Amino acid sequence: MAGPGEPISTEESADYAFASHWFDRAPYRQHYLDEGGGPPVLMLHGNPSWSYHWRRLVTGLRDSYRCIVPDHVGMGLSSRPAEGDYTYTLDSRVDDLDALTSYLIARRGAPTTGWTLVMHDWGGPIGMAWAARRPHLVARLVVLNTAAFPSPFGRRLPPTLRLALWAVRNTATARDLVLHRNAFARGAARFGVTRRMDRRTREAYLAPYAVPEDRLAILRFVQDIPLSPADPAWAGLRAAERATELLADRPVFIGWGGRDPVFRRAFLAEWRRRFPHAAGRLYRNAGHYVLEDRADDLVAQIRAFLDGGGPGLPAEGTQERRW
């Protein structure tokens, strides 16, 4: 598969047969997909995934919606700037998104209203902190296993995340596990799903992170997890939290994997508390990558939500439920 900054061909990944677009922002450039036409749907991936995560949703929406899907800087097919050229913080991610969307509006015909914001994992804090700056752009939210507020567990993190955070804040351990062994990305591909990924899909998730130099953003994302006001990303997280108030009247759809070892159901409960009228579906036996475990149904539910029909009823006898 192609490396960072290079297009992926149809032959290399038939389910990621999209045209690459680039936003130049010296000294680096950001890769993004821009598929279809109609109201814009902005899809934000987390760590350690990339725009490949959204391939099925793009395919399911692009006949009627403009699907805009960036790779965060340092991830996917975007540039890998040196630390001296980029801060690798939540604030820098929000600045990137603000610059990209402003460019799309000013230069690529994107509208100034009517955007749907779709978020997974770190896409939640990034997207909602951006939405706090531009609430007039956002018409709807789609939430998949993420957060936009301090952990409901406080500093008592779930064991999986606590172990990961301890490891990456230990410099020697972090460089060995994340940079050299690629343990975080490999672990996410293995334990982020309850239906084992086939080899091709797993390799596609890992393809942009083939060598240690490609993995710096993965490491910095985990190190940037805010637990208290002393952490650099805390202010950005609070901005994301403010957006839950600014957007309280927007339609919201929540699709949640019930067996996520990090974003446990307490996070889902907090989203529902903040958006009590949200439509949604709990997939009891899906994992963190809920869009991998329940792709067909979840894409259909999101499409119905965007089309105005609302989520459908779960199939009889399934382990899924609508609230």
SS content category: alpha/beta
Q: What is the number of helices? A: 12
- Strand order across the largest sheet: 1-2-4-3-5-6-7-8-9
Biggest beta-sheet profile: 9 strands, mixed
> How many DSSP-defined strands?
9
The CATH architecture classification of the domain at 19-154 and 233-322 is 3-Layer(aba) Sandwich
Give the ordered list of helices and strands. Answer: EEEHEHEHEHHHHHHEHEHHE
CATH topology of the domain at 19-154 and 233-322: Rossmann fold
CA gyration radius, whole angstroms: 18 Å
Q: What is the CATH level 1 assignment of the domain at 19-154 and 233-322?
A: Alpha Beta
Give the termini separation: 41 Å
Mean pLDDT: 90
Helix content: 25-40%
Poorly predicted regions are: 7-12
Molecular shape: globular
- CATH homologous superfamily heading of the domain at 19-154 and 233-322: Alpha/Beta hydrolase fold, catalytic domain
